[in-house]
Amino acid sequence: MQILPSGLVIPPLPYAITLVVLTAASVAGLYLLDPPVTSRQVLALAPWMIAGGALHAIHQTGLIPDPVDPLFAAPAVYVTTFVLAAAVWLPSVVRAQMLDDVGRIARNLGVAGTALVLGLTVAAYAFAAGRVDSTAALVWLPIGFLGAGVLTAPVYYLLALRWTGAVDRAGVAGPLVVYAHALDGFSTAVGVDVIGTGERTPIPRRIMDFAETLPTYPYLGKGWLFAVAKLVVAAGIVVLLADLVEDDPTQGNLLFAFVAAVGMGPAANNLFLFLIGPAL
Fold it and tell me: What does each of the 280 residues of the chain score in pLDDT, given as a tens digit?
């Protein structure tokens, strides 16, 4: 049975070796410096997750220059994005240790990541503005991020009512995880039910195939069930990882960051493809 999404490509050997070396150096540097990883740093990594999805969308539409294009195919784009983030993370850690200012790490990561996302967003809109057939393609990006927020708020409120202690321990990383997967579910539902895209990942496709057999299909479409499943799983992960964050903050927050990236990256990829994909 197929588990991984279709379209995964191993980059040519020189690119693969470069990524392996840079990743190993980045991980070794972070390991040796041993910085504390806080929930604020997890939040600061969110723009980098969005940037990774956006860069892959730009690659899919053929807009990345050929010399570096293999670095932004999947799964290489996730490693490339980590290396770019590490280029900000490592010097920020060194400077923070010199000044005894841990908060500097999150600030630098957040500012640099946000600047990258804004640049990619402006470039994507500039490319799409004169090429899309209708203005509908221009609105899905903000609607996606706002819609995910509308889904996240009540879910996290109910989670906080039932598991108050876990939510407190999770800090700001908790709502980020739920938001990231709400964004993935919402963007996927928009794609399959409104825009008419396909789904490359087998498990979500099976969930939506099942939803298509339900009596709700003519009224709600098939993407809603995947969105609900994502929200339930994300909320469960917040509860499960909350104790780990209390016992080992660095390990727990790194796991939160990974779980958030698994939702945020594909979601951003969906939304940027809605914007620039139809133009080609």
Answer: 334 454 567 889 999 999 999 999 999 999 999 998 999 999 999 999 999 999 999 999 888 999 999 999 988 999 999 999 999 999 999 999 998 888 899 999 999 999 999 999 999 998 887 776 667 778 889 999 999 999 999 999 999 999 999 999 999 999 999 999 999 999 999 999 988 887 777 888 899 999 989 998 988 899 999 999 999 999 999 999 998 998 899 999 999 999 999 999 999 999 999 988 754 3
E strand segments, the chain? none
Q: Of 120, 114, 137, 115, which Cα lies nearest the Cα of 271?
A: 137
Q: How far apart are CA 166 and CA 119, in angstroms?
A: 36
Q: Can you give the three-state secondary structure of 32-74, one letter per residue? A: HHCCCCCHHHHHHCHHHHHHHHHHHHHHHCCCCCCCCHHHHCC
Joined tokens for residue 260: 């958030």
* Number of Cβ within a 10 Å radius of residue 66: 7
For 74, phi and psi rounded to 5 degrees? -90, 135
> CA-CA-CA-CA torsion for 73, 75, 81, 82, nearest 10 degrees?
-160
